[in-house]
Amino acid sequence: MRADKTRLPLENDVYLLAVSSSYHLMNSWDLMAEYHWKTDRNSDDVLQGALVSVNKLIGKNLKLGIGYNFSDFNDDLVKKDDYEAHGFFINMLGTF
């Protein structure tokens, strides 16, 4: 007879804090810089990093851009980090 394994609730005390700033360059171009901290209370781990992007306003409701992430982690607080998140990214922001 096989015993059933019961799943216990998983506690995850991981927090992400970010400070972001945008600067309007010219016409419809913006420069964005962000610095963020990711803390894990279970392992007393604190990671920090920065990212920058250049964005172009397309129409009234869409902004597209490209940027670079200088940190080694991403903003997904659920999955386990592979600590290889640095690199280029595409940014898309829409409003309606």
Mind explaining what this structure looks like?
There is one protein chain. The protein is mainly β. The protein has one domain. Helix content is 0%, strand content 57%. It is built from no helices and five strands. The protein has strands spanning 14-26, 29-40, 45-58, 62-69, 87-94. Strands 1-2-3-4-5 form a five-stranded antiparallel β-sheet, with no helix packed on it. Strand 2 and strand 3 form a beta hairpin. It is elongated and about 60 Å long.
Keywords for this entry:
elongated, 96 residues, 5 strands, mainly beta
SS-based structural class?
A: mainly beta
Mean pLDDT: 82
CA-based gyration radius: 18 Å
The order of strands across the largest sheet is 1-2-3-4-5
Number of strands: 5
Strand content: over 45%
> Strand count, sense and closure of the main sheet?
5 strands, antiparallel
Low-confidence residue ranges? none
N-end to C-end Cα span: 57 Å
By DSSP (H or I, 4+ residues per run), the number of helices equals 0
**How many domains, in number, for the residues?**
1
Shape designation: elongated
| Helix amount | under 10%
**What are the secondary-structure elements, in order, as H or E?**
EEEEE
Topology:
Layout: E1 14-26, E2 29-40, E3 45-58, E4 62-69, E5 87-94
Antiparallel strand pairs: 1-2, 2-3, 3-4, 4-5
In short:
By secondary structure, this protein is mainly β. The protein is 0% helix and 57% strand. The chain has one domain (14-77, 84-94).
